[in-house]
Write a structure and sequence with these properties.
The chain is α+β, with helices and mostly antiparallel strands. The chain has a single domain, classed as Regulatory factor, effector binding domain (Multidrug-efflux Transporter 1 Regulator Bmrr, Chain A, Alpha-Beta Barrel). Helix content is 28%, strand content 32%. It has a six-stranded antiparallel beta barrel with strand order 1-3-2-6-7-4. Pfam families: GyrI-like (PF06445).
Length: 208
């Protein structure tokens, strides 16, 4: 039976439309960094190379190689960690050109460095993507966090963050940094803005 992250990992990927506390374990990702407006072509190119690698892993058995421990699964959604440049933090309003990001796609537990190298080799032979050498495979452990499902346009996210901030304050917690995680449950190319579903999450710690 195919492993479905929507069913097996609901606590991490399918939160409610209200703030909640979650402890996020160490996870492994294909990741690539960038700066600038996510509406620009450069951002789309980075998404493309990540999905090329993610599907190269997913389809390996059909390419004649089955990694040890492999199981059928649905490719994980795109995720991103967002921050601002020093210049961007000094502005009163958001300038998307000053955004810093690391976008990523989670990989199943069976994915090793050997599997990663094979995936990179496959993508390079099929169509050598110019950003391929910028992709890294690494782990992130977010730990204690607060998250909430945001429904609607990305530009309306500040309203959801306000709810999260109130929840954090009322639970004797405090935000660790200005960076935050977004998990994109909807394809913005096919879903109208008012129906987009995005998981918003940031790290917290007990208030001192």
């Amino acid at each position: 039976m195919k492993y479905e992250w929507r069913k097996k990992e609901k606590d991490l990927y399918i939160p409610k439309q209200q703030p909640e506390i979650v402890t996020v374990p160490k996870q492994h990702f294909f990741m690539i960094q960038g700066q600038g407006n996510p509406n620009d072509e450069e951002f789309s190119n980075r998404i493309h190379v990540l999905y090329s690698l993610a599907y190269a892993v997913r389809m390996m058995p059909k390419q004649g190689h089955t990694p040890e421990g492999y199981f059928e699964y649905t490719v994980y959604p795109l995720e991103g960690i967002w921050d601002l440049t020093e210049k961007g933090r000094q502005l009163d309003t958001l300038n998307k050109d000053e955004l810093l990001y690391t976008i990523m796609i989670k990989q199943p537990a069976f994915v090793t460095e050997e599997v990663v190298e094979r995936a990179i080799e496959h993508v390079r032979k099929k169509k050598d993507h110019p950003l391929l050498d910028e992709v890294i495979f690494d782990s992130i452990e977010e730990g204690l966090s607060v998250q909430m499902l945001h429904v609607g346009p990305y530009d309306d996210e500040p309203k959801t963050f306000q709810e999260m901030d109130k929840f954090v304050a009322s639970n004797q917690l405090e935000r660790v940094s200005l960076t935050h995680k977004e998990i994109y449950l909807s394809d913005f190319r096919r879903v109208e803005a008012s129906k987009l579903k995005t998981v918003l999450r940031y790290k917290v710690k007990p208030k001192a």
